[in-house]
Amino acid sequence: MEHFRKVPAVVRASKVQVLNRVRWLWEDLPDGYDSFWFLDIYLAVAAVRFVPKNVRQQAGWYLYQTMALYQMIIGLLDMIYALQNLTDVLAAIWYTMSFFAILLCLVKHYIVLRHYEAIHELRIFLNQQSFCSGDPAFDGKIRKRSYTVCQLLIMTVLCVIVLQQISIWIPTSQRDRTFSIPPWMSSYCGVFFSFILQILYFGTFTVIWVSKLFSCTVVASILIIRVKTEQEILAKNFELMMQTCLEENFFGSYQNSNRARKQFWDHTKNHLKTVLDQQHELLKHLEQLKSLVEPLFFFIYYASLIIVGTVFVVILREPLSFMTMVILSSTTISALECYFLCYLLDSFKDVNETITDHMFCFCSQLPHSGDHHADYVDVRATLMVVGYFCRHGMSFQCAGIGDISSAVFADLVNISYSVLTFLLNVL
Fold first, then answer.
1. Which sequence spans correspond to the domains of the chain?
2. What is the pLDDT of residues 176-214, one digit of tens each?
């Protein structure tokens, strides 16, 4: 009886904990709490760097890995059978693209694991929130906005995964063809066991593989958003520095007082040193971010060139069905993955342009006097170097593409359309 009396208290405590977690999606976190907790939940769903803490979690972990291995093997067998028996060219193309997508999931999974130490260091840096613009209200507002955007991003991806998985559960002939078992296996196992094997194949396919497909992109996107936020705080710091140093009635006192001139240059150089130290620290972490984003974009871009046009050929040649719409939406979302990264990196460049504008504006307004000519040249040169580097030295690049921007996505759409028209004429 004593155990039953404790049940309501346990339920209430669990309810409070769940409500607190949901509230933390939108509100400020308690002090010292990891702001990446929702990302960790997503990575656990994708089975990226998950460490089981008890026997039940360990059993679930082994079951998850077994299901993923089984689904990958079935995908490989489907592709081999379709390529050996080219009676249906569209089926051969579809199964080849499906297995290629599985391999792409594993590549993205490996990229996260390969750069996990850099990701961990970036998370520590962002959780510390060590940058300050001099305007606490601005800092708090912009950090809260970026935190909310990150939570919405993860929630959107999870909703897409759940909706796609539910859609796959709806019985259709197109689904049975898309997630089929090789005929030789069906004839060997019998009707009943073939049905069980097919359920095991599509029952958790989206949860396992689509979560892996977007895992690296979600991590990279959140880090870009959060690093861009710190860059915006730094840009605000540059702006306030310029306003403070060149405040109203400054030039009159500067020209008439040796003491005012000395105080100006001492204050400017000290403030500039503090801001440049923050800029140097941010650049160090930016290099870590580039090492993650650039190889990720390479695989996303060139995989999209192959997959998008090819899958659209299969969709156009097949009769329209609910499963066809699911495949169409999945392919479109994969293409938009490339666009989303381009958009984030473009917005990152906009912040760098803002810093550059502040630097050049400050340069044009620096006062000059003969007794502080060396200080004038030193500060002016520093500002020009920082401005030039922010404009030209902080870009993300990809092999064979150059700078990553929205124009790259436009090229991707044009090339994918060319692939589509070519295959439609050939097949």
1. 34-426
2. 888 888 888 888 888 888 889 889 988 889 899 999 999
Q: Give the C-alpha separation, 97 to 419, whole Å.
A: 14
State phi, psi for 26 to the nearest 5 degrees. -120, -30
The DSSP symbol for 403 reads: E
Closest CA to 237 of 359, 389, 365, 366: 359
- Among the listed residues 178, 157, 161, the one whose alpha carbon sits nearest the alpha carbon of residue 321: 178
Do residues 355 and 387 make contact, with C-beta atoms less than 8 angstroms apart? Answer: yes
Spatial CA neighbour of 151 closest among 293, 23, 343, 51:
23
- Terminal Cα-to-Cα distance of the chain (whole angstroms): 72
Task: Say whether pLDDT at 1 is over 70.
Answer: no
Q: Which residue has the tokens 């695989």?
A: 299
Are 183 and 119 a contacting pair, CB within 8 Å? no
- Match 């923050």 to its residue by tokens: 278
Going by C-alpha positions, the residue among 246, 270, 283, 288 that lies closest to residue 385 is 283
- H/E run at residue 73: helix 55-84
**CA-based Rg of the chain, rounded to a whole angstrom?**
28
Q: What count of residues does the chain have?
A: 427
- Which of 333, 382, 387, 317 lies closest to 359 in space, CA to CA? 387
> What does the pLDDT look like over 343-382, one tens digit per residue?
998 888 888 888 888 888 888 888 877 777 888 888 888 8
Average pLDDT over residues 60-84: 91
pLDDT category, 218, cuts 50, 70, 90? very high
From the number of C-beta atoms within 10 Å of its C-beta (0-12, 13-18, 19+), residue 329 rates as middle
The type of residue at 79 is M
| Residues above pLDDT 90, as percent of the chain | 18
Q: Please give the structure tokens belonging to residue 423.
A: 């295959």
- Cβ(258)–Cβ(82) under 8 Å? no
